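Exercise 7. Predict the joint structure of the components listed below.
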Amino acid sequence: MASPDLSLPRPLPRRGFTDHALFGMAVFVFTEVMLFAGFISAFVITRNSVPPGSWPPADQPRLPFERTAVNTLALLASGVLVWTAHRALARKGPEAARMPLSLGLALGALFVGLQGVEWAGLLRHGLTLQSSQVGSFFYLIIGCHALHALVALGVLAWCWVSLLAGRLLPSRFGAAQLFWYFVVLVWPALWLVVYR
Amino acid sequence: MSAARARLGLRIALVLACVALAPRVAFACAVCGGGNPANRFAFFVSTVVLSLLPLGLFLGGFLWLRSRLRARFADEFTERDAVPARVPARPGPRPATTAPATR
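Solution:
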């Protein structure tokens, strides 16, 4: 008895709708947006609960709003440069992306360094985590952002090394970019709400 | 008729009683309802923002996924649709229909 023909039709290729790395990072950024929104909400409500003129308390230093504008400009420029690197990588290849990514990375590191200097000054002037509500919120919110900036900077540095080695994966770079854009874009909101 | 009117009046009285006896807003939280109008306004705005922000993010994510899916599956049926159309049969005399079988 002849065996029946068991050949199956060719299976259709699986099609993903996006990179897994990018999608996972988008979900992560979603949660981070809500985290910082909660921080800002708590800060604004607490700040409005004190009598007018008593924020920050008299014995506490004012946050350097004007001086931090330099940090803000550096971070925004870094975001633009990373975006330029992405465009250059897609259109002209890895060689063209090296310079903007290097500059973006350097400006990001400059932001973190200036923040560290600013923190050292504020600590010297007596603003600590336990000195007042201002200090508690400042170190909680801005510290959380600084932690994100450090991690994102590390991921970008990893992409930079991969780019120099000629083995940068587009999906990895896309996820790193998304994280960096989050760090860049959430900062102006924190600067305007917390420092002012 | 009078019974129906009585029921209607009872319902209206019940609704009015509920409205009249409804409790005032209780500011149970000392921070959120501390009596400071600026504080209360900040609480209200924060509530609105924290309610709408995830909805906006979900909407943005949905639109992004939809655009990605459309772009990715735009050529899903290209192969199927690329099959050349069959040459239409030349019109000729109609085949004779068979008479229905008699039972």
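Discussion. Chain A touches chain B at residues 15-18, 26, 30, 33-34, 37-38, 40-41, 44-49 (CB under 8 Å).
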